[in-house]
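Incident log, structure service

09:12 report received: a user says their structure output differs between two submissions of the same chain.
09:20 pulled the input from the user's history:
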Amino acid sequence: MLPLFVVVPLAAAFLIVILAKRFEFLSDFLSNLATGFSFILSCVLLFILSHSSLKVMVYKVGGWLPPFGVDLVIDGFSSFMLVTINIVAFMLNIFCISYMRKYSAKWKFYTLFLLMLVGMNGIVISGDIFNMFVFLEIASVASFALVAYGVEAEELEAAFKYIIMSAVASSFILLGIAFLYSYTSTLNLADIAGVLEAKGLSNVVILVNILFIMGFGLKAAIVPFHAWLPDAHPSAPAPVSSFLSGILIKALGVYVLIRIFYNIIGINRALLAVFTFLGVLSIMVGVLLALGQMDLKRLLAYHSISQVGYIILGLGLGTPLGILGGLFHLFNHSIFKSLLFLNSGAVEYSLGTRNLEEMGGLREKMPVTSSTSMAASMAISGVPPFNGFWSKLIIIVACIQVHKIGLAFWAVLGSILTLSSFMKVQKYAFFGSLKKAYQNLKEVPFSMQFAMLVLGIICVIGGILILPHFDSFFLFPAQQAVMRGLGYKGLIYSVLK
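09:34 re-ran on a clean worker, output below:
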């Protein structure tokens, strides 16, 4: 089943290019079919792994055994990421059915969107570091085109900045892979882990660590590598902004950082200290820059930087509770940030503006958009009982557990400032008096409402995922996979044997 995560969306993109020029409805149908299938398949694999004695599955491409052949691998962490990626992709495709009508050549958008999904799914299931890089570039190139999709001056400028910064990141990553290959003579992730464990730490490995932190840190938009994000994400169409902020920076940046440093190279105190410092820095810089923004999508983009900081902070603690909180927040942020960008897209779709000062009283005319925006705003601010509260609480408790009260303080302060920022959004956009120009305003079409409602419901009930029954098949296997550390290689070898 593993190759289907790449083959199905790739085949759908190919068919859309051929058929959708003549039959426009096929682009909607094929794209939603492919993303729906990928989501269902990810849930099936999650169920199989949770009920299997084997904690990992390996697919040998062409029947060649690693490290001589390419392999696809899925464990608890990969499965967790696949569900997160594909549930958001499916909801965004449903939203696009109506939203993308205002753009020409909808089939081009769906083709690029599916290629971006191919890249992200491929990164998560890749068992060797070079193919991980190839899939990373597929997702990146598709995202460049999607940022510039409106072909206005703002979009083209943002896409150019994004391309330059992403190229710098890719150069760091490729250079790091080259040094790693020269030192280990292999590209297979499990094999690299085995060689590094046998050879031990060296100056080459330290250099690779630095290159990977800079490269994947740029992809994840961690401060101080965040400069490209505030321009790129607001300029793209709303579903693309949702995918970029909600999923892309996690799959291309955060996931690879966790996989490489925890399971391949091996984590140590120095790396954990770097992660916690970058996490706190991202939390505070992101939220402080967001406070002064009146462009709704730009405000949300800065909050993406801040919320990724919480994920990095949790994982930088290196404790079971910290890792659990970081992974849980990764999932929660994917949901509520995707929803917030869809809310901004719905407002822009109806009003034609992203400026908060030009809005007001929209809850009277757009009740679904207003209600789901409130749910997502409470979730990102860490207000109980929404999903973001539970993941932030776990991270804060994990900080206190290891007697790092200062880190807990910054995490709490960041959450308070986030709440003040989103109270501003609610006040300017949805509360107050409705302007005369918007008296005849209507709620967005049903497909857009449906996607927002589903994500809004997850924001409300998402806290149940930490309960024992749910945790045992979703969060706990992902946490265990990360905590397994260098035991990852032994697990892969045992399955291959």
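09:41 both user submissions now match this output. Likely a transient worker issue. Closing.
09:42 reviewer note: DSSP finds 20 helices and two strands in the chain. The mean pLDDT is 88.
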